From TrEMBL:
Pfam families: AAA_25 (PF13481), Lon_C (PF05362), Zn_ribbon_LapB (PF18073). It comes from Romboutsia weinsteinii. The gene is radA. GO terms for molecular function: ATP binding; ATP-dependent DNA damage sensor activity; ATP-dependent peptidase activity; damaged DNA binding; serine-type endopeptidase activity; zinc ion binding. HAMAP family: RadA_bact (MF_01498). This is DNA repair protein RadA.
């Protein structure tokens, strides 16, 4: 009897070795190696290359056609996808447990099924009765929606021809397995094989497929990074479990713009889209309170107004505390250093807390001006006018640098009733429509603080 050969595979990056290692030399993670049976065949296969089967084609002779899309009947998700679901596309959806991935996808399944298309919802984590209970709670009932509780890929493939669906939902890729591979579900080999099989199904049969992927404790998708490279679109679910708001962000999209953002609210009847999140997120802004102001940001192509809060108080310890929620901590530390050096605010012995209301995370540099003005407002205990919005990037020398989409930001402020907006002076020359709002251009940080907190325009 031939000896079975084994190998050790890192479950984070897919690195292979013949012996167990405590630390992966590729991704430097600890205790990630799992023993698997080596599937390599001892026989060498001989391939005969048919020279007439494939050849280079001149780019001018290639005929193109527009992608065929169909709507999910959820405007927020359609925009993140680039205008709807592309026929034959493979979409990967990631997010923390319990954040609403399965809820959103069962709602998408129902909407697409109600439009007359057949949908196959495959679950390797729940039984048919459990899915039915959730569907009854959400009011889902369609003749074109089929539920299949199975995690064997070979059995799933055998049922596709009889059902002939136009949309497949797989929840999740970590639970399915191929019997041809002698490793447990969720391992790197099974994830790569499962994604590859569903990619072939999607492209060969023209079936749009959504795959749910689990995430690690660091927030990244579990499994090798190759998983994200194989699919056409990668969507991330964001938001805190104790908060009702959920964000769907596209970090990769071959058929549309990346960094688009969809905003939802979790309710008893499922996820409800928020077509105007700015109005809701700033509705509870306190009046005449120092440290609170409105910032104008852009996520993808959507302008958004958010409330940014800062609290500055004398420290009770030797080292002051810095806390940032919804913004990059390192960016906050940098801006506080600029505020001390260029403006002269003595906050080295003050605790500073920064928060974006609503549980939304923003990485755009245009929020820099809002952070420093909120900190200065709290430090001096001077409230900011509730009708003022601010936007702009702050440089290390204290200058206010230009930003993109200034017209969209101003239009969003006017739509929500703001009377004034502070912008970088370099953007002031390109502003065409100034009716209905007063624009205050600024060159540097000291000037911005004097205008907003001192009223010296």
């Amino acid at each position: 009897m031939a000896k079975i050969k084994t190998k050790y595979v890192c479950q984070e990056c897919g690195y292979e070795t013949s012996k167990w290692l405590g630390k992966c030399p590729e991704c430097t993670k600890w205790n990630t190696f799992v023993e698997e049976i080596d599937q390599k065949s001892s026989k060498k296969e001989v391939f005969i290359v048919d020279k007439s089967s494939s050849r280079p084609i001149n780019i001018n002779s290639i005929e193109t056609r527009a992608e065929e899309r169909f709507s999910t009947s959820i405007n927020e998700l359609d925009r993140v996808l680039g205008g709807g679901i592309v026929k034959g596309s493979l979409v990967l959806v990631g997010g923390d447990p319990g954040i609403g991935k399965s809820t959103l996808l069962i709602q998408v399944s129902s909407n697409v099924a109600n439009s007359g298309k057949k949908v196959l919802y495959i679950s390797g984590e729940e039984s048919e009765s459990q899915i039915k209970m959730r569907a009854r709670r959400l009011g889902i009932n369609s003749e074109n929606l089929y539920i299949f509780a199975e995690n064997n890929i070979s059995i799933i493939e055998s049922q596709l021809e009889s059902i002939d669906p136009e949309l497949i939902i797989l929840d999740s890729i970590q639970t399915v397995y191929s019997p041809e591979i002698n490793s447990a579900p969720g391992t790197v080999s099974q994830i790569k094989e499962g994604t590859s099989r569903f990619m072939k199904i999607s492209k060969k049969m023209g079936i749009s497929t959504f795959i749910v992927g689990h995430v690690t404790k660091e927030g990244s998708l579990a499994g090798p990074k190759l998983l994200e490279h194989m699919v056409d679109t990668v969507l991330y679910f964001e938001g805190e479990r104790y908060n009702t708001y959920r964000l769907v962000r596209a970090v990769k999209n071959r058929f549309g713009s990346t960094n688009e953002l969809g905003v939802f609210e979790m309710r008893d009847l499922g996820l409800v889209e928020l077509e105007n999140p700015s109005k809701i997120l700033i509705a509870e802004k306190p009046k005449d309170v120092a440290g609170s102001l409105i910032i104008s940001t852009v996520e993808g192509t959507r302008p958004m107004l958010l409330e940014l809060q800062a609290l500055v108080s004398p420290t009770s310890f030797g080292i002051p505390k810095r806390t940032a929620t919804g913004v990059d901590y390192n960016r906050v530390s940098l801006l506080l250093a600029v505020l001390e050096k260029r403006v002269g605010l003595q906050i080295q012995n003050q605790d500073v807390y920064i928060n974006i209301v609503g549980g939304i995370k923003i990485n755009e540099p245009s929020m820099d001006l809002g952070i420093v003005l909120a900190v200065a407002s709290s430090f001096r205990n001077i409230p900011v006018d509730e009708h003022i919005a601010v936007t702009g990037e702050v440089g290390l020398t204290g200058e206010i640098r230009g930003i993109s989409f200034i017209e969209k930001r101003i239009a969003e402020c006017k739509k929500l009733g703001f009377k004034k907006i502070v912008i970088p002076r370099t953007n002031y020359d390109v502003v065409k429509d100034t009716k209905g709002i007063e624009i205050w251009p600024v060159d540097n940080l000291r000037q911005a603080i004097n205008i907003v907190l001192g009223g010296n325009k």
